[in-house]
Write a structure and sequence with these properties.
Blueprint (H helix, E strand, L loop, with lengths): L1 H11 L9 H9 L2 H5 L3 H16 L4 H14 L10 H17 L3 H18 L2 H17 L3 H18 L8 H13 L3 H12 L8 H15 L3 H13 L8 H17 L3 H8 L12 H11 L3 H7 L1 H5 L9 H14 L3 H13 L7 H4 L6 H10 L3 H12 L19 H10 L5 H8 L3 H15 L4 H10 L6
Helix pairs in contact: 1-2, 1-4, 2-4, 4-5, 4-6, 6-7, 6-8, 7-8, 8-9, 8-10, 9-10, 10-11, 10-12, 11-12, 12-13, 12-14, 13-14, 14-15, 14-16, 15-16, 16-17, 16-19, 17-19, 19-20, 19-22, 22-23, 24-26, 25-26, 26-27
Length: about 475
């Protein structure tokens, strides 16, 4: 029974799959872990992967994380080469999906990259399609939109080669695309994505709340805040999809606050966000939205206080929401007369976000706050004012994908984070500890930075980055 249920759920996540029955899902969620671990190792790994998926898809993330710890530590199926390839694929996909669900993009990316390599090894286009979707979502959760777009492009090419329906989205790729269209404030792309996601609902019920959220985003970008707010409220309350993913509901709540702040209603936004907690690594960051509300109320010290935890966690903070944190702090410091801190935070915001990726951030400052900052910076560090202007603060948004020309455009977001640390006296091992990654990861990213800059040493890399103004931003 459990093996059949596991097979049904895992196959449903692949191209052309059909959803499992409710009875099968219930069996997977209720199965005692001790019984599963008593099974042969390969069978336990396969069923365990399906159990993690079943729990994740009903927001039982604490149980899914506990189960993942038991299975990965006790029966390490994602890294055990002695297990059949189908078990390794199922385990890697389940763990990548789990960590995307809790907005831990770093862990999700680790498993998605491993999964994509194994899918190539398997030679099954359905598994490669699934791996690429998870890879796109993991990159998007990390704020690495260029990498997410590359993964989605590979999916489109694979779909053409296999003659699959190009009008039907893949769920995880849709998550990635939805995050990106919002940050780029692309109303046309948001509207086009909605029907593609709705076509998934029959095979993937979780797509229902995602489609509602994307439609709310499309309405917001089309200048219909009232309709957008009504639909976002339904997502938050679970009206159309009571078991919808918690991450989607959290994003809908953030959209509600975004709309209220855009309408200059900071008190309502603060009331709405009361008690809202950040997701893992601050992919959803209520603190940054609270800070905008305090700025609109001219309670600048409260804006700094609201983002103090974000400041302490800056290195592990999500790269998508970090620019908003930094810009709110820059404005607050400017108003309080802290010139150096204001310029430093504004420069860091630009260094962490390519120009067009700041559009949704800029939309939260309709009352001239950014114009204050631009005027302030123009007299001291003009390139900061120019960077904000290029991002669209003057009403002329930059073209999608346009980056600040003073920052080496080929560096990925994670490489930029490492590049910021290269100027310090920290060793590779110390940087790794600071970034919560393995030393080998930092070493690999450092070597990639050297290669892209055409240098052979840390000193030469820092020198070149200084020449292009990377550290001054």
């Amino acid at each position: 029974m459990l093996l059949a249920a596991a097979t049904a759920l895992i196959e449903s996540s692949l191209q052309g799959g059909c959803p499992p029955s409710q009875r099968q899902l219930d069996a997977l969620r209720a199965a005692p872990v001790s019984d599963v671990r008593a099974l042969p190792r390969a069978e336990a790994g396969y069923i365990g992967a399906a159990m993690i998926m079943a729990l994740s898809r009903t927001d039982r993330f604490a149980e899914a994380l506990d189960l993942a710890a038991i299975l990965v530590d006790g029966e390490p199926f994602p890294g055990d080469r002695d297990l059949p390839l189908d078990v390794l694929l199922a385990g890697g996909a389940a763990l990548a999906e789990l960590y995307i669900g809790v907005a831990d993009g770093v862990r999700a990316l680790e498993y998605a990259l491993r999964l994509e390599a194994r899918a190539r090894e398997a030679g099954d286009p359905r598994w490669r399609y699934r791996a690429l979707g998870l890879l796109a979502a993991a990159h998007a959760v990390n704020g690495e939109f260029a990498d997410a777009a590359t993964a989605r492009a590979a999916m489109r090419e694979l779909a053409r080669d296999e003659a699959w329906d190009g009008d039907r989205a893949e769920f995880m790729a849709a998550v990635a695309e939805g995050i990106e269209v919002f940050t780029r404030m692309d109303a046309e792309a948001a509207a086009a994505l909605v029907p593609r996601v709705r076509s998934l609902v029959e095979a993937e019920p979780n797509a229902r709340s995602l489609a509602d959220l994307l439609e709310a985003v499309a309405l917001a970008l089309a200048g219909e805040p009232t309709r957008s707010m009504a639909l976002a409220t339904k997502v938050v309350q679970g009206v159309t999809h009571p078991d919808g993913p918690g991450l989607v509901r959290s994003q809908a709540l953030a959209l509600q606050a975004f709309l209220l702040l855009g309408e200059r209603e900071p008190l309502r936004a603060l009331s709405l966000l009361q008690g809202a907690e950040p997701s893992r690594n601050h992919f959803i960051c209520p603190a940054s939205l609270r800070a905008v509300a305090f700025l609109q109320l001219h309670e600048d010290r409260q804006a700094l206080k609201a983002t103090s935890a974000c400041k302490r966690r800056r290195v592990e903070h999500n790269l998508w929401s970090l620019p908003l944190v930094l810009l709110t702090r820059a404005i607050a410091h400017m108003r309080l007369g802290h010139a150096a801190a204001a310029l430093r935070n504004a420069g860091e915001a630009l260094a962490h976000a390519e120009g067009s990726r700041l559009r949704s951030v800029i939309a939260l400052f309709p009352g001239g706050e950014l114009q204050e900052l631009m005027a302030f910076a123009q007299k001291r560090v003009p390139r900061i004012a120019d960077g904000i202007r290029l991002s669209g603060a003057d009403g002329e948004p930059s073209a999608p994908g346009e980056a600040d020309p003073r920052i080496p455009p080929s560096l990925t977001d994670r490489e930029r984070v490492v590049a910021l640390q290269l100027r310090t006296t920290l060793s590779i091992a110390q940087i790794a500890e600071l970034l919560f990654v393995a030393p080998s990861t930092v070493k690999s990213q450092t070597l990639s930075i050297y290669r892209k800059l055409g240098v052979r040493s840390r000193a030469d890399a820092v020198r070149m980055l200084e020449q292009v103004g990377f550290y001054e931003l």
